[in-house]
Amino acid sequence: MEKVIAGLGVGLLFGFVLQRGRFCMYTAFRDILLIKDLTLFKAYLLALTIQAVLIHLFEELGWLSLSAPSFVWLAAMVGGFVFGLGMTLAGGCSSSSYYRIGEGMVGSFVVVVMFIIAAGATSGGALRPLAVILRSVQVDMGESPATISHILGLSSWPLILVLFIPLALWLYLSRSAPPQRGWAWKKTGLLLGLVAALAWLASAWSGDVHYGLRMTGPSASLLFYLANGDPDSLNWGVFQIMGVPLGAFLAATWSREFQWRAPKPHRLMQQALGGATMGVGAVVAGGCNIGNSLTGIGALSLTSLVATIFLILGTWSGTYLFFVRRAG
User: Fold this and answer.
1) How does pLDDT run across 37-76, given as a tens digit for each residue?
2) What SS3 class is residue 174?
3) How far apart are CA 187 and CA 185, in angstroms?
4) Is 314 in contact with 126 (CB distance < 8 Å)?
5) What is the secondary structure of 30-73 as a DSSP string?
């Protein structure tokens, strides 16, 4: 019961914040290149900063235990880049695709279905050998955590103070233009960071692995449960991803933005391909834009940092191939 309460509760909050903030990390990364706009990227940085400070404080208090997986650099590079390309085809990241289902977007539903199928196939199906081979190439860290702070020879707090405090000050002093729809980026980033930190506590309280917001693993677990009926597949993250479209639906209904919308057939096929590509890339990289770029970097994971760098490069490459070059 704790898994249901924790997962659905966090998922509802997450979906509500995503919808009201119009938050999409694909858009955040794409707009840096396409229209030279940092609005959503600043919301992402603010959320990342708040989460990083809070979860390390929670660890100091003994409320949770942070850990970083081994440094699978090749999988992070390949998976991150492939995921970035997939986002461009899908027209959104994994989290925005989930929340847009709650707005009535049929295309996003197709993206999520294909993301779930591909994530399951790469985690424990026909494509699993691909992930195993790529993730077998790693740097042996011994018993040391594969964190950014460890590589730099620092403890976590000095690195957080050096990186995130100046960043927080810059974000605080940044101007916040009135949004056309939804919340301003500062409000979105603040609430998203708080929900992201809460997710770590919720996972610990539910008795599950201590980890925050994530989309990839729970999506694969949902497929495994539907395929074999194994109740052990229903971890708290599965209920979290179920809560996202529900929370977004409540937000969209409250703001009178819910509307059934379907793309043209050729665009739907493109989105389906994008969803499948994201699913493969996310499993190979060990996470998506949420599991790596928000949650993983917040825990100072070195793999997540590398995956995010290549995710952004994949997004920019896809943006150039599918938008800039064609427009030119």
Assistant:
1) 999 999 999 999 999 999 999 999 999 988 877 899 999 9
2) coil
3) 6
4) no
5) HHHHHT---HHHHHHHHHHHHHHHHHHHHHHTTS-------B-H
Cα dihedral across residues 260, 227, 80, 244: positive or negative? positive
> What is the number of residues in the chain?
328
C-alpha distances in Å from residue 288, one per residue of 79, 173, 197, 249, 259: 9, 30, 17, 23, 27
pLDDT in the model for residue 59? 94
Separation between Cα atoms, residue 59 and residue 63, nearest integer Å: 6
* One-letter amino acid for residue 141 of the chain: M
Q: Measured on CA atoms in the order 68, 74, 75, 76, is the torsion positive or negative?
A: positive
Q: 87, exposed or middle or buried, with CB in 10 Å at 0-12, 13-18, 19+?
A: buried
User: Which has the closest alpha carbon to 315: 23, 115, 108, 83?
Assistant: 83
Q: CB neighbours (10 Å) of residue 130?
A: 17
| The residue to which tokens 């692995």 are assigned | 209
C-beta of residue 115 within 8 angstroms of C-beta of residue 279: yes
